[in-house]
Amino acid sequence: MPSITMSRPGSSFHEGAGPQRSQEGTEFAMEWMIVPFKRYADFNGRSRRMEYWMYQVFTTLVYVVCFGIMVAGLPWDEMGKGGDPEALPGPVFWIGLVLTVLWYVFTFVPDIAVTVRRFHDQDLSGWLYLIRFIPYIGIIVVAVFMFIDGQRYENKFGHDPKSDHMGDVFG
User: Fold this and answer.
1) How far is CA 62 from the centre of its chain?
2) What is the pLDDT of residues 20-59, one digit of tens each?
């Protein structure tokens, strides 16, 4: 299978590795944030912790902006002391709500995929994602797994994403 490489000055895209360090030693944070979108429904291969956590930071920032829009659309004056407790939110609230729902739908698949690839990086089954559905502790358990460094060698899911191995971008 031919090797596909996506690059821009000072960086390159390896199998599951995301952007590489430039000669100046800086990393492109935004590139790390969008790598899971480039591998939208790719449940094969491995992903580094950097890819997972930068993606989580990016999605959290988008949610914060959407919730901020929703809060800005609340009728604060009417809900205050002596105001109408049944006051309805304004159109800005609904725009924020629609944006939040659209973002959730858009990120649903890549969120699962990047988490599965993180489990693969530790040579674990992606089915461990289902732990997330255990009430109260499931999300915490999965988050702990996401902090664990992956294996430093090739495993049954592919090459070490931290290595310099050039591979196919999508599997």
Assistant:
1) 11
2) 554 343 456 778 888 889 999 999 999 999 999 999 999 9
